[in-house]
Specification:
single chain; alpha+beta; five-stranded mixed sheet; three-stranded antiparallel sheet; 10 strands; about 25% strand
């Protein structure tokens, strides 16, 4: 009887452990997404992420690693390496406080990987290194902003307006409802005329 009870207790413990295991992880950036940092300085504000399970419950004790690019805009962590690892707290949050940026302006990616038991999740967040004059990096052309700027814009607008005026004058002259075309708009006559005479045939006496 005791052996049966012991076996039942062991099965119950195994079942509880299986239920307690995390099946799916989710990562969300709480703070630091899109931060603009000064070139050659430490990060402007900490990067904070939250790790939750499939039900949205915070996952404590999850290992979270942060990875910076090997070249281009980026930098190193406090250890001098491009990879840093921390553990989530009771609220499922992990904080990255120290990051030394290099002097290459532009956008850079931070790869984040979280793991707990057999579950893993990954994501990418982006930050920026400002231009030497302190300005934020210019937006990429894919942002959909207009490409017409400065003098080019007004030259194109003037050309379109002139074309529209000429077309309007042609239509008005054709319909007879408007004033005749000015001499400048009237097509010039051909500089020369070619005349082809009819053929002639002369038949002599037999």
């Amino acid at each position: 009887m005791k052996s049966i009870l012991l076996a039942a207790a062991l099965l119950g413990a195994v079942a509880r452990l299986a239920v307690a295991q995390v099946a799916i992880l989710h990562i969300r950036v709480v703070e630091g997404e899109g931060a603009v940092n000064a070139a050659g300085s430490h990060n402007a504000r900490p990067l904070t992420v939250e790790v939750t399970d499939e039900t949205g419950k915070p996952v404590a004790g999850a290992s979270v690693s942060f990875h910076l690019p090997e070249d281009g805009p980026g930098g190193t962590f406090g250890s001098g390496l491009r990879t840093d690892v921390t553990v989530t707290d009771a609220h499922g949050r992990a904080n990255l406080h120290t990051m030394l940026l290099n002097r290459t302006p532009g956008r850079f990616a931070i790869r984040i990987v979280a793991s707990k038991e057999q579950a893993r999740a990954g994501m990418v967040t982006f930050q920026y290194i400002a231009e030497p004059n302190g300005a934020a990096p210019a937006a990429s052309s894919s942002s959909g902003h207009s490409f017409l700027h400065g003098p080019v814009k007004w030259v194109l607008i003037g050309a379109l307006a002139a074309g529209a005026a000429t077309a309007g004058a042609l239509v008005a002259n054709k319909s007879g409802s408007g004033a005749p075309l000015s001499p400048a708009a009237t097509p010039a006559a051909p500089s020369s005329t070619i005349t082809i005479g009819g053929p002639s045939l002369t038949v002599g006496k037999p």
